[in-house]
Write a structure and sequence with these properties.
Length: 170
């Protein structure tokens, strides 16, 4: 999930930048027009039009909440990475007990509840890149029956550890 979150961060940052660039250009154009246009009638309508376009762009940016979504996925990416490291550490020292496993499931479920819509093209990219090599998160497949790995022996692990291979001798 950390990979999915980081790709989603990039996606929302890109849209944030795309939505901010026209506002910058409109402001620059208005500065040039204000200093070069002598007719107050024309200048008035140009100012109204440019201010309207700027207001629409800012309104759309605020409505789409690109910055908030990018920040949310950034926080989730960090938390999923920490969870994956905790699972790897427990596996490395052969300390993956049922209690720890249940704790990891609760933590994973808690983090997954905070995930808003992930764009489908990102889901598909991650699914195509990692399917067969790693256990995929349920959010990428929609259900746990499609969520398999060639090295998996137990379906219970598929929803727990999205990007880590787990041995069957846990």
């Amino acid at each position: 999930m950390a990979i999915v979150c980081s790709k989603t961060i990039s996606y929302f940052h890109m849209w944030k930048q795309i939505s901010n660039v026209p506002s910058i250009f409109i402001s620059a154009i208005m500065s040039v027009l204000n200093s070069n246009v002598d007719d107050p009638f024309v200048l008035r309508y140009l100012n109204i039009t440019c201010n309207l376009l700027t207001a629409i762009l800012i309104g759309l940016n605020n409505q789409m909440k690109f910055t908030e979504k990018a920040n949310m996925f950034h926080q989730l990416s960090i938390k999923f990475s920490k969870l994956e490291h905790a699972i790897e550490q427990a596996m490395n020292i052969n300390d993956l007990t049922n209690d720890k496993l249940n704790s990891f499931v609760v933590q994973y479920d808690s983090l997954s509840e905070n995930i808003e819509n992930i764009p489908n093209h990102i889901k598909n990219k991650v699914k195509n890149a990692y399917n067969g090599d790693y256990f995929l998160p349920i959010i990428l497949n929609g259900d746990s029956t499609n969520n398999s790995s060639p090295n998996s022996g137990s379906e219970q692990y598929n929803s727990i550890v999205p990007n880590i291979m787990i041995n069957n001798n846990v």
